[in-house]
Design a protein that fits this description.
Length: 64
């Protein structure tokens, strides 16, 4: 099933990432451990494969 940008944002926020804002439709998230990830796109848009991969990698690093 194709995930939406809002699903990726929700996953990041539940893992402790904080939205630090951004330009346009981009959002910069930062974790207390220093991990950063940027997500671009409107919340209702389908997420691209690379975005899902970047978020999954950030979540795994934050869990360590």
């Amino acid at each position: 099933m194709i995930r939406k940008i809002k699903d990726l944002i929700r996953d990041l926020e539940h893992a402790g990432f904080v939205n630090r804002g951004g330009k346009g439709s981009h959002r910069n998230f930062k974790h207390a451990s220093g991990i950063k990830v940027t997500i671009g796109g409107s919340p209702g848009v389908d997420a691209m494969l690379y975005q899902e991969r970047d978020v999954e990698k950030a979540l795994q690093e934050a869990a360590k």
